[in-house]
Amino acid sequence: MSGTLYGVGLGPGDPELITRKAARLIEKATVIAYPALAGEASLARSIAADLIPETAREIAMNIPMTVDRGPAQVAYDLAAVAVRAELDAGRDVVVLCEGDPFFYGSFMYLYARLKAEYAIEVVPGVTSMTACASVAGLPLSARNEVVTILPAPIFAGSETDGGPARVLEQSDTVVVMKLGRHFGVVRAAIDAAGLTDKAVYIERASTPHEVVLPLSQAPEKAPYFSMILIVKGADPWL
Amino acid sequence: MSGTLYGVGLGPGDPELITRKAARLIEKATVIAYPALAGEASLARSIAADLIPETAREIAMNIPMTVDRGPAQVAYDLAAVAVRAELDAGRDVVVLCEGDPFFYGSFMYLYARLKAEYAIEVVPGVTSMTACASVAGLPLSARNEVVTILPAPIFAGSETDGGPARVLEQSDTVVVMKLGRHFGVVRAAIDAAGLTDKAVYIERASTPHEVVLPLSQAPEKAPYFSMILIVKGADPWL
To answer: In this protein, which residues make up the domain named Tetrapyrrole methylase (chains A, B) (predicted)?
Structure first.
């Protein structure tokens, strides 16, 4: 009988924000897989490090970070081969995922390759989005407020279609994720919409390297794991 | 010295989806508060039941479910008085919150009333949104896809302004939350947008009463704790 594939959300970075279910699956795992950027330590592995049994077999999935998607797709093909061998041998595989596996998570690439043939269980995790709201002391949404999540790359070259500008104007709460090298153009769009005063910048929420600042005081450069929260709702409880 | 107020997210319903941080805070709590709808058992308390110490003092916040906001605001005023008394006596108070405290959560009403005077820590939790995606086997968003979250009540009477219809047309992923009595009008709008085939209905994700169905096969009536996920993205990994 084939093993089961578990896609396990680890939350935003603080090991204490791992769920009890994820912790138990990791603690009793015989095979653990995780993404690692070529040449770097795996962030996912570091979040779960205190739970990984010494006896577990580890599969590091080396994913190249290129704008062209081809190389990453090949890397997921290779990872699927390695995971498949374990499942076929009857061993369960626990895949470690930063945040939530199905919310901008890389687990879905493995999921797509294996879902037709194997039993797969996805364990949801705390997203960086609500972790950022918590550390910023900023309730994201109440009652009938609309929340829109915009990955930063869509701001690049969007001057003509107006998509992000319309969202900034119309949505009650806007979450801009994955700032990285698009931080400048995002910042300019928020400024043009007159929303800089309502924008909060958060970097690496819930980790020792956490940064929380009004957008107007944010540094020039932002890492990939950073976001901006814009909450327009007036205090909705008064 | 005053106590600290903890707003603790419990996740979508499965006690195993409570984070380790939330579990530890609850296990050592001396005072625990939670919302309860008038005359009913508290859902939040039931999720955390196995963790609550027998010795803990419990504060049930009786919140009326009325369309008019006035009575609920009075209830939160009263709850704040009770919580304040504990904090002033130097005792920490752990408030149990379904899902995530700052994502359509009622904790923010208490937060607004007490944040100026007391130390408050918010512990994020797994949202029902990603839990629904997990049980539906439906990745919510990849790469640069835009996600919009629409509370169902905004569909009522929106024929004229076109807001929800525009979101259904333009957003890559649409999450419609809190269906309840607005299920009919939401369903009609999704049908009019030609998206019924891409819509999945989920009720009480991660609980023993979980329901996952294509929207076309969903029951006539939906509870408050239900949602629809519409994911338009083609398999983005192939």
So the answer is: 4-213
CATH class of B5-123: alpha beta
Q: Which residue has the tokens 């819930």?
A: A206
* Per-residue model confidence as pLDDT tens digits over A161-215: 668 999 999 999 999 999 999 999 999 999 999 999 999 999 999 999 999 999 9
**Cα(A237)–Cα(A227) distance, rounded to whole angstroms?**
26
- Which residue among A23, A112, A170 sits closest to B235, beta carbon to beta carbon? A112
The Cα–Cα gap between A149 and A154 comes to: 11
Q: Do A125 and B120 touch (CB under 8 A)?
A: no
A226: helix, strand or coil: strand
**Which ipTM did the prediction report?**
0.95
A122, pLDDT greater than 80: yes
Closest CA to A10 of A2, A20, A1: A20
* Ordered mean pLDDT values, 10 residues apiece, chain B (238 residues): 97 98 98 89 96 97 81 91 98 98 94 96 98 96 93 79 85 96 96 96 96 97 95 70
Q: Do B127 and A131 touch (CB under 8 A)?
A: no
- Assign a CATH topology to domain B128-231: 3.30.950
Minimal CA separation from A97 to chain B, in Å: 13
The residue of chain A nearest to residue B149, with distances taken between CA atoms, is A147
Least CB–CB distance from B139: residue in A12, A19, A108 = A108
Which residue of B lies nearest to A179 if distances are taken between CA atoms?
B144
